[in-house]
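Long-time lurker, first post.

We've been arguing in lab meeting about whether zinc ion would sit comfortably in this protein at all. Half the group thinks yes, half thinks no, and nobody has a model to point at. So I'm putting the question to the forum: if I give you the sequence and the SMILES, can you give me back a predicted structure of the complex? Inputs are below. Any interpretation is welcome too.
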Amino acid sequence: MSGEQWTPERDARLRELVERDGLNFGEAAKVLGITKNAALGRAGRIKLVSPRAIGALDNTATIFERLDTVSIFPPVGRCVFPNGHPGTEGFAFCGERVDAGRVYCAEHHRRTHQGTWTAAAE
Ligand SMILES: [Zn+2]
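Top reply:
Settle the argument with this. Predicted structure of the protein with zinc ion, as tokens:
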């Protein structure tokens, strides 16, 4: 036993610190009074990803896999194509209306299905 108890409240607090307040896991761990490794380990278990880390990725598929764990998505029915890098200033989703069942507007659907596009090229 590690002695570290993860309750839903504690999970929520960790999520809040990282996603809303933009702390990295080391900083969030300090606030919670735990080690960075403990925070990272728990993050992996609850699929929590720092928006800062997302900005370092250049693979669109990976970004969206991770983004579905963060709370910066536009409302359902709006294009989630990222303009800029998530976690950086000026970042925003496209936000155009999309057809039911789609995540991108027509323009961005076409662009993301060409296969060669990456966020880094934007
Ligand atoms: Zn779009």
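For your lab meeting: The pocket of zinc ion is lined by residues 79, 81, 94, 96, 104-105, 107-108 (CB under 6 Å). The first helix runs from residue 8 to 20. Whichever side wins, do check it experimentally.
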